[in-house]
Each structure stands twice: as structure tokens, then as C-alpha cells.
Amino acid sequence: MKRLCSSLTTTLLLLLSATGTTAQTATNPVIFADVPDMAILRKGNTYYMSSTTMHMSPGLPIMKSKDLINWELTGYAYDTLSTIDELMLNKGKSVYGKGSWASSLRYHNGMYYVTTFANPPNRTYIYTTKDIEKGPWKAISFAPALHDHSLFFDDDGRIYMVYGNGRLMLAELEADLSGVKPNTTRVLIENASAPAGPNIGLGAEGSQLFKVNNKYYLFNITWPKGGMRTVVVHRADAITGPYEGRVAFQDKGVAQGGLISTPEGNWYSYLFRDYGAVGRIPYLVPVTWQDGWPVIGVNGKVTDSLPLPASRGYNPGIVCSDEFNNGKRPLALPWQWNHNPDNSLWSLTQRKGYLRLTTGRIDSTLLLARNTLTQRTFGPECAAVTAVDVSKLKAGDCAGLTLLQKNYGWVGVKVDVDGSRRLVMMNAGNGKPEEAASVPLNQPVVYLKAACDFKEKADKGYFYYSLDGNTWQPIGTPLTMAYTIPHFMGYRFGLFTYATKEAGGYADFDYYRISTSKDGNTFKKQ
């Protein structure tokens, strides 16, 4: 299977109509999936975007587009951020909700730069390459972690980072990017939240700095108490200031991002919206210029449609089906492991046409299990199915298909101490996992399905099983999905195996197929 799946487009928003036709213009949100903290640049006629995937591995995804609507994954800036215990799910530690956060994406003098920060291990990371689509990426890191920073190459050759929360800082970097130059850190804006009023819940952060027509424009998000996520923009004639600021946008909580222009000279602001359990979903909002200020939106509002090319149809690029018939590594690009994997315990070759997940240690819960393989869920509805051979699981083993977040749910197989197998639905919707259903299983292969309803933030998950792959039976109770801050990520589909008694058992997953309907029985192959 090729690593590159085709584009995830606004068909995830509109899908195919009953007549088989698609919308003729793009619509908001441009991606109905968890793609937060976007940073976008344009090189010629091609746009590149980075985003946040925090505790996932590989991380810091790079996507490309020719039209700002149809995006496809090209790779990741890193395979492994660090090997600290928290990222390895060792000793009961994790980095759920942490890992690498908001990135900055730049092109300068023939080189691409994408940066992020992580705490732990309290470091700032800079990745560089001459080929953003193929790599390889060179890694540089230094302490401390500069929060929500924006990398900026100024015209005089100096390199800066703007960072912070509420009180924004400016630091000059060493020419080789190895760290902050001594005695160069200064307060840039004492209270960047001030334009949004005195009653602030979230201080201004998410900095993205641009230079347009010889002026510097700094975009931030802030959140007034009792209000909504708000875009604040400051401008100055010099990077060091002084800056004047104003509220630039308040609508539907669509905020945090920056500016991008098209080759034709049209401007947009790329922002995202918290949308419940599916995660933080990207919007494009038209921008005009008035008196040297960016004016975001049409009459101050998000537009439902956009004067951009229509979707090319449902042929996704940041999610994909997989028959696991590649026969070799690597996995298809949309796959990410929950934390760093143990690469000795998964295989696409030990059984041709299958993904084998082998247990290597004892774990007490799914959230601590190594080698859970995930992809994004997406809206407004979606479902995933898999077929799994559980004949080689050992007593105490669990394997199946999950909707992964802190309040997770899963359908799969448990092996009891006597070796008998049961189909089980686990529901942790109230924060504590409970066995909601159990059905004896007397065959080695079982078919599993998980479905999501994100329409109007319904945020419900449903689980099913089949003994023949055709006739499906619901199992357990609906999962009340919630976007929890401890995980800080939209729900993920996940394939998993873990041991509670003895390591060494394994499950073989035959395929993973996705659908744009929670109720449909037609699932797209690769």
C-alpha cells in the first residue's frame, strides 16, 4: 500500500448527495476532523500545513494542498520526539494532553523549518529540511520549552521567537538555532489580552507573526470570561514594537491561527474551532485589508461557503482504509501510534496481509497499553470496521477496536483465565471503565465496528460485532464522548492488543476500513 492516501477534503463535510453530485464551492469547516494549531505557508502554487498531534508517534504532521481545501499528508517531522518514560508509556507515566504542541512553519533561503515545543521534556524543537515533502528532517533542540512560539526570520538576518501567554516575550536565537542568544529576551507586549477587555480567562497565546507591506502583524487567541475564543491582532513598524492591538474576530469561537495569501492576491485567515468530541476543526475565513489592518470575515462572521475550488470527492488524505497488504514497513501515513511504539512488537510481514500486534508486557488498562495504532475520527459521521483473528491471544489478553480518549470505549475480545473467549464492550464514558456487555465467542475470527455521530455535537459512539462480516449486532451501551483536557485531542479510532496476565500473545488484524456514515454497511477499501 502506498504511504500516501489521497486527499481528505470537504466531502467529509458534505459527502456525496443522493444524486451523486458534490457541492460546487468549498464549505466551512474545511476539514471536519482534529487538525488544531495549524501553521500554513505557501511556496509558489503549493500550500503546506503543520498541525498538533501531541502524544502521537510519529508526530508533527506535514500536509500539502494546491487549493487550501484538498489536503494530503506528505510525512512527519519526527518519528520519535524523545525517549523519556512519559513518551514510552513506562512506569505508569504518559504525556496525554502534552507531547509536542503548537507548531510554527517557515521557508527561508532554500530551507523549510517547522518548530514545536514539549513539556516534558521542557525543550524547544526545530526541524529543518530542503525537501518538505520527502525530508529528511534534521533535529535541533534546546531548553527551555518556549510556549506557543512563532519562529521569524527578519530582513536583517536575525532570527526570533515570539512566545508566551498573556505577557508575550521576544527572544533572538543563535544563528545556528542552537538556543536563545544570551541577554536578548525581552517583554514584547506586557498584556496582549488587553484589547479583549479586563476579564480574561485564557491569556493571549498561540502567537503567529507575519510581515506584510513592511508592518509586523502578531496574531493571538484569547478568551474573555463568559465570552468566546477571540482573535487579537497587534501591529508594529518594528519587530521589537511598540505594538498597537485590537480585537480582530469573534464568531462561533473560531480562533487561533494566522494569515495566508493565494497566488491571485486573495487573503484568508486559517483558524480552528473547538467542536466537542471530534476535536478542533479548521476553518478558512476571508480577509480584506482596511487602513493597514486585516479585516477577518464577512460582516464579522464566518462564511459557510468559500470562493475556492470544490472538493474532488471522498478520497481522504489524512484518514484512510488499509488492507495491510503492503508486506513491508512503513505503515500508511494516516496511522499514528498512541505514544512511542515498541517496534519489535508489531509486524506487517509475520502474516502476509495482516497487521500483527504482540504483547510485550503486562498492562492494567488500555490507556497504558503500548502499540495502540490510531487514526482520526471525522465528522459529521464516521465508522470503522476491522476483522481480527484472536486465536493466539493468551489468558488475560484483550484485543479490539477502540474510540480512544480519556473517556474511551471499545469492542473486542477478552480471554478468561480458563482460555475461554468473550466478546466485550467496555464503556468509560463516565470516566471509569465498565464492562457493559459480554457475549461468548466460539470462533477464532470476529468482525468489529465502531461508529461516531458528531452532528450538532451529538458526540455519541456506538459499537457492533459480527460473526460473518455481514450481519451486525449492537453490543453494550452508547458511549458518551467528551473532549477532555487531560487528553486534549479529538477521539481516535484505534486497534489494540494488551496483556493483563502474561506477555507474548498476539492478534492479527486483517483490515481497517472507514465509512462516512455511522449506520452504513458499505466500507471503503484502500
Structure commentary:
Residues 1-23 form the signal peptide. Belongs to the glycosyl hydrolase 43 family. The active site is at 37 (proton acceptor), 205 (proton donor). Keywords: Glycosidase, Hydrolase, Signal. Residues 321-514 form the Beta-xylosidase C-terminal Concanavalin A-like domain. The chain has two helices and 38 strands. By secondary structure, it is mainly β. It has two domains: 35-253, Glycosyl hydrolase domain, family 43 (Tachylectin-2, Chain A, 5 Propeller); 336-515, Jelly Rolls, CATH 2.60.120.200. The strands form eight sheets. The chain has an eight-stranded antiparallel β-sheet with strand order 4-24-27-37-29-30-31-32, with no helix packed on it. Strands 25, 26, 28, 33, 34, 35, 36 and 38 form an eight-stranded antiparallel β-sheet that branches. The protein has a four-stranded antiparallel β-sheet with strand order 2-3-5-6, with no helix packed on it. A hairpin with an 8-residue loop joins strand 9 and strand 10 (138-142). The longest helix is centred in the N-terminal third of the chain and has 4 residues, at 11-14. The chain starts with 10 loop residues before the first helix and ends in an 11-residue tail after the last strand. The model is unreliable at 1-22 (pLDDT under 50).
Distance between the first and last residues' Cα: 8 Å
Largest sheet: 8 strands, antiparallel
> What radius of gyration results from the CA coordinates?
23 Å
In the CATH scheme, the class of the largest domain would be Mainly Beta
Strands, count = 38
Signal peptide: 1-23
Domain Beta-xylosidase C-terminal Concanavalin A-like: 321-514
Protein name: Beta-xylosidase
Organism: Filimonas zeae
